[in-house]
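From the shared-data thread, chain only:
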Amino acid sequence: MKTIVRTLLCFAFLITSQAFAQETFAPLLSETCVAFVHVDFSNVELDKVKDTLQKTGEALLKELGFDDKSFRATANELIVELEKLEILAGPTFNAITKELGIREIALIADMQLAETGAPFLFAVPWKNKTEKHFETLLKILATAFGEEPPSPEDTNIIKIDGFLILAPPPTQEAVVDWAKTLKPAPENSPILEALKSVAGNEIKIAIAIPEQVRILVRNAPLPPEVPVQVRNLLLFAAQKIEWASSGMSLAGILGTEPPKNADILLTAKTPKRSDAVMLKGMLENAIELGVVAAQFAMQQQMKDGEFQVPPLAFQFAKGLLRTLLPDVEEDKLIFRLKGENAASNQIAVATVGMGVAMLLPAVQASREAARRMQCATNLKQIMLAIHNYHAVYETLPPLYTVDANGKPLHSWRVLLLPFMEQNALYEQIRLDEPWDSEHNKQFHSTIISVYACPSNPGRSCTYSAIAGEGFVPAKSANSKGDYTFARITDGTSNTLAVVEVKEPFCWMDPTADITLDDLVQGINQGRAGSFHFHTDGCNVGLFDGSVRFISNTTDKSLLRTLGSCDSGKPVNW
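Structure, as tokens:
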């Protein structure tokens, strides 16, 4: 059953690149239809597609200026990969299109359908087909994945009035009821008007914005960080755009006929010309604002020594985005690729996209390296504060303080504040009241930068002791006790004091620290580790004041030894 779902989705992805003849699917289009993608691949021949992809790839290599040696090597590899694709996809595609005669597929999203729990459905025409045809389809799809075909009853496919519908079991009954009560969309409905605007194309995408959607957009809360200009643009567009469409000619793509409107990316319909003009102006302002905001944000995030994006990159980005500004034609916005040759522009955009894609990992790696170094610096400051605390009070800071009844009051992180230039904040906290008392709650949202890994987007506290090992609870703050460095019998250079954790918490919380069992689950597993902060491990502070980076592959038995203050076992780093 899962194979059938996965296969149909893959098949839909491969062929949902060409579409029209909405008449085929008219019985499934209602007034509440918000999106319709229809594919007509009657003219698709895999050998022609392969030849076109090969020619397009070779043209791109020449456009990029490959020398003869690199061109021949890359072109030969391209031919090999295309032949592999033909061998893998050819039998399945030919069996479905020729043996079963399936030449169309559609994706439909409907407001009423969404209420059933099915946000969209895939549909295939199935008129005049028998159970034998259905069994053949299941065999073809199962063979493509090398699995045994399921029985017709054990699939996510249902039959509705001449269509095969892909619908998960929990929604199948609701989808059948939806189809029975569906009222076909009238000729002047937005979804059909959108489809008419791209008539003649084999690739068709139509989007309609009914009143229900407008109401949802009006009432949907936007994050406060969204700029006012962008907020206004989104709201205005949702209220004014009636429909949008995009179409493409399959014959033009394959090179068998001149491309039709190859430069048009999208058409959007508004009530009147003045609305279209207003939207274009708002888009232009949003581009200016967005590029400036991105430039400012990157400059703020990047520190000395990190990769610096030159201003030229932002000017280029702005110019590239401005080429996508629409033309206003009557009451429509027409988004086009600008330039004398749309195909050349497509190659240019693809080339720039690949260049950015290749550059981005390097930029991200540079940033992450700097953040990881800052994280290590944070831990060094924490460890220095712990040593200073020990020097003053002749004891390690308690894991947390408790009241007369043994109830936890405050975390060790609170007690270290005076040793990290945070004495003013420390004096405002009432240590005789719980950390979450009415008075102390006001400090929960205070960001202590030393306690937050810079790779953590939330900037919450991410550093934990190992409860019950080096740090243990104490009845009162700053009291002398028996828990000195002498307790670390495994050696301070072999014992973890503070580690990064993957679940941020409030820095004042006295019960948030992980246990040794948590740590032993593994780095980036369980509660211990850095999770999405550092991808390949986490920073740790040792009781001797040093900081190390521990890999995800660190053995669990070694983690138990490192996390214990008196394991009696040697450590081999």
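The chain has three domains: 1-42+103-208, 211-338, 367-563.
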